[in-house]
TrEMBL record:
<comment type="function">
    <text>Catalyzes the synthesis of GMP from XMP.</text>
</comment>
<keyword id="KW-0315">Glutamine amidotransferase</keyword>
<keyword id="KW-0436">Ligase</keyword>
<keyword id="KW-0332">GMP biosynthesis</keyword>
<dbReference type="GO" id="GO:0003922">
    <property type="term" value="F:GMP synthase (glutamine-hydrolyzing) activity"/>
</dbReference>
<protein>
    <recommendedName>
        <fullName>GMP synthase [glutamine-hydrolyzing]</fullName>
        <ecNumber>6.3.5.2</ecNumber>
    </recommendedName>
</protein>
<keyword id="KW-0067">ATP-binding</keyword>
<keyword id="KW-0547">Nucleotide-binding</keyword>
<feature type="domain" description="GMPS ATP-PPase">
    <location>
        <begin position="2"/>
        <end position="194"/>
    </location>
</feature>
<keyword id="KW-0658">Purine biosynthesis</keyword>
<feature type="binding site">
    <location>
        <begin position="29"/>
        <end position="35"/>
    </location>
    <ligand>
        <name>ATP</name>
    </ligand>
</feature>
<comment type="subunit">
    <text>Homodimer.</text>
</comment>
<comment type="pathway">
    <text>Purine metabolism; GMP biosynthesis; GMP from XMP (L-Gln route): step 1/1.</text>
</comment>
Length: 319
């Protein structure tokens, strides 16, 4: 394209030179990094790219549909959509320890992804959305410096077991450059500027044991919160915002009746680097609106609280 910024052309040329006529697999999560890789690779090598999108049952409301819409329908990317909800829920049954939950979710992802990859015997490359800060962080972990307070979603073993070469076209880019590249490649603004979402997804936002019923309630509460943040122009002023499901019941009144239902906590933070963070001073009127909507629209939730803890000492996620 004559009007494309030079660096997009360069990135495309680089991928073509590296990959040649060989096939590539990419784990598409719907997050910014893997989305930009998908768009870039699709532009560079078209049908030589196959994406695998794993629905672990812990995604946000309508997230799977949105990913399929953007990539498969609008861009014409080959995307294999695997609904593995049952598998993930089955393995998470009875597990309430946060680190144990993370490990299970990471392990099952590898399992599902591997099974899909084996159906594509012609693939020679595994693409990943590694960006420059990830490179720095994992260099740190080899010297024992990276924080191990929470084990981050790790797919490190995949290339070896699958005998694939690693393709990391964003390896030299900072987050803001990745976003610019995404926009230049024509991805929707809302996708490129979306808040980060952890690999274990709602699995670390449902405290204790994960149940599908809890995930369904949380998805709806979270969507209302995000909707109202966007409507009030607060989404872009926060670095991350989400709802957390607390598996405790409290008493409420509804009409003439008494209710005894679950609690949702709202979390919104402002941060530069996610290592430290301030809780966002959202307007009370906005919080009130979100609370009313959640309690009125999500049967099963009768109380909403706002998290006013900074990091440190609290972490951004509750688990
Ligand atoms: P915390 O909760 O440690 O989170 O203050 C800092 C940032 O990291 C994200 N996060 C994760 N991302 N896998 C991920 O991919 C994880 O297990 C994980 N835990 C936390 C969190 O959402 C925040 O942006």
């Amino acid at each position: 394209d004559w009007n494309m910024p030079d660096y997009v052309t360069e990135a495309i040329e680089k991928v073509r030179a590296q990959v040649g006529k060989e096939e590539v697999i990419l784990g598409l999560s719907g997050g910014v990094d893997s989305s930009v890789v998908a768009a870039l690779l699709h532009r560079a090598i078209g049908d030589q790219l196959t994406c695998v999108f794993v629905d672990n049952g812990l995604l946000r409301l309508n997230e799977a549909e949105q990913v399929m819409e953007t990539f498969a329908r609008n861009l014409g990317v080959k995307v294999i959509h695997v609904d593995a909800t049952e598998q993930f829920m089955g393995h998470l049954k009875g597990v309430s320890d946060p680190e144990a939950k993370r490990k299970i979710i990471g392990r099952e992802f590898v399992e599902v992804f591997q099974a899909e990859a084996q159906k594509l015997p012609n693939a020679k490359w595994l693409a990943q959305g590694t960006i420059y800060p990830d490179v720095i962080e994992s260099a740190g972990s080899k010297t024992g410096k990276a924080h191990t307070i929470k084990s981050h979603h790790n797919v490190g073993g995949l290339p070896e077991t699958l005998k694939l070469k690693l393709l990391e076209p964003l390896r030299e880019l900072f987050k803001d450059e990745v976003r610019e590249l995404g926009i230049a490649l024509g991805l929707p603004h809302d996708m490129v500027y979306r808040h980060p979402f952890p690999g274990p997804g709602l699995g670390v936002r449902i405290l204790g044991e994960v149940k599908k019923e809890f995930a369904d309630l949380l998805r709806r509460a979270d969507a209302i919160f995000i909707d109202e943040l966007r409507a009030a122009d607060w989404y872009d002023k926060t670095s991350q915002a989400f709802a957390v499901f607390l598996p405790v019941k409290s008493v409420g009144v509804m009409g003439d009746g008494r209710t005894y239902e679950y609690v949702v906590a709202l979390r919104a933070v402002q941060t530069q680097d996610f290592m430290t963070a301030h809780w966002a001073e959202l307007p009370h009127s906005l919080l009130g609106k979100v609370s009313n909507r959640i309690i009125n629209e999500v049967r099963g939730i009768n109380r909403v609280v706002y998290d006013i803890s900074g990091k440190p000492p609290a972490t951004i996620e509750w688990e």
